[in-house]
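Input record (one chain):
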Amino acid sequence: MPSILDSLSGVLGDDVVGQIGQQLGTDPATTSSAISSALPMLVSALAHQSSRQGGADALAVTLSAHDGSILDDLPSAIAGGGGSEILGQVLGSRGGTLASILGQSSGLESRNAGQLIGMLAPIVMGALGKSMREQQLDGAGLAGMLGVANQEFAASNAPLTSMLSQALDANHDGSMMDDVMRIAGGLLGGSK
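The corresponding structure, as predicted from the sequence alone:
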């Protein structure tokens, strides 16, 4: 079964990337590169959120409203926006942190980085909600799935992972991986 990051990359074809680039005012190569950084960052931030006390169950409840139908009409979803509200509900003030890190790593202006994350957030939530339903996952299973995706991201993006770790480290011990895997690793057996 493909990972959540593979699934997300698969639904964002050239036409969608082109539409995002038009809205951001960026060329296709810059847009594609920024998307390739933003998607795992969003998944990583959600993995971090799910590692907090009660975070996995709260995220599962939030995702129950996202059935994946957004993936059927991505151009309308991108044009419609709405990602800022989702980011606020799920990540709180960390949405701004993600935009800042994305801007630094991709070269996008801060405004464009925030706009891109806002466009991608509903898509990520839709894909996660769909995966959660299809795999019949509860909060523990969701945390496990996000933890695995976060490990894939960490293994292939060391510099970006380091920046995210510093920004999202819950217990300020220098590592967000322990925060994510503390719950995700112990909860993998909790999926249905």
